[in-house]
Amino acid sequence: MPRPSVQAPRSVVMIRPHHFRPNPDTAADNRFQRDSDSAQDALARAAYGEVTEAARQLEQAGITVHLFEDTGTETPDSVFPNNWFSTHSGGHVAIYPMFAPSRRKERRSDVIEMLKHRYRVQDVIDYSGLEQDNLFLEGTGAMVLDHLDRVAYAARSNRTNEVAMERFCTHFNFEPMVFDAVDADGTPVYHTNVLMCVGSDISLVGLDCIRDAQRRAEIADRLTAGGRALIDLSHDQIADFAGNAIELQGTHGRVLALSARAAASLTKSQKARLERHVTLLPLSVPTIELAGGSVRCMLAGIHLAPRPGTAA
Fold it and tell me: How buried is 197 (Cβ within 10 angstroms: 0-12 exposed, 13-18 middle, 19+ buried)?
């Protein structure tokens, strides 16, 4: 079994929604988002069930899930907590400025207090005040972080401001790699984590989404320099959320959590390459994907050391 990696957290935070719906505040720049003919109550029940089952499957794989309930009616995207906070080895937590006003209400003090109680937290750096200056950086949606080589990959968008990102990278000791990325229709990709995933020994990335050929080559070289296997995803696979995955440390080794739709889009060859390093863990979240995010967005990884006497 590969030894644990700082890239693959053993624990995650999830939010179980009670009033889920695709958020009209985010539809303008999120081309992955879809409307639904289903009644709102039916959507909410389906999303609640999908999170419940996903949490069960993750725990069955040996991953600790800290599951919080969201009973508010003004936070339709609460199921995606990775956008408003992130955690980092050494005891550091970041809180982020969010583009849509409705998403700013997702930030919760009880989640931060749980982290302080269960894990070693030295400091919490709160960037949310940058919202007053229209500077936004939506966490590990806006940035895909390589915790091993200390690189922060980010596609420019309304949700990813370079000034805010430079500030984060200075505080948290990451090298920024910023680029322009578009979907098959030429529309800018709203979040970096829908087009790439970085694991310990693998990476998935939609290289064709990166406009500049030189930057595309630089990113591919950087991802493979340490020996990672690079899985190049097509535009169709990106649209099926194949890039929106996260590597986690389970009981019997590392797993790659991704949606059932994403897993079905991978070719046999791609799956075989991935399975040399990770076990695929497909989770069925079709309702949640209507909101324009998938499994990676649903999981806020905990890269913190547990406190003695508290199970992670």
Answer: buried
The pLDDT tens digits of the residues spanning 250-266 come to: 999 999 999 999 999 99
Q: Please state, in angstroms and rounded to a whole number, the distance separating the CA atoms of residues 207 and 194.
A: 12
Residue type at position 102: S
Q: Looking at 24-161, list the stretches that DSSP marks H as alpha helix, in order from N- to C-terminal side.
A: 40-60, 101-104, 109-118, 139-142
Q: What is the DSSP letter of 81?
A: G
Query: Domain 11-302 is classified in which CATH homologous superfamily?
Result: L-arginine/glycine Amidinotransferase; Chain A (3.75.10.10)
pLDDT tops 90 at residue 43 = no
List, in sequence order, the alpha helices (H) in the chain: 40-60, 101-104, 109-118, 139-142, 162-172, 213-224, 235-239, 260-265, 268-274, 286-289, 295-298
**In this prediction, what percent of the chain has a pLDDT beyond 70?**
93
pTM higher than 0.70, yes or no? yes
Distance CA 280, CA 263 (A): 8
Q: Tens digit of pLDDT for each residue in 206-249?
A: 999 999 999 999 999 999 998 999 999 999 999 999 999 999 99
Q: What is the mean pLDDT of residues 57-78?
A: 94
Q: Which residues, at least 6 apart from 223, have a Cβ–Cβ distance to it below 8 Å?
A: 198, 203, 205, 230
Q: Structure tokens of 119? A: 């894990």
C-alpha 308/C-alpha 310 separation (Å) is 6
| Integer CA distances (angstroms), 78 to 173, 293, 300, in order | 28, 11, 12
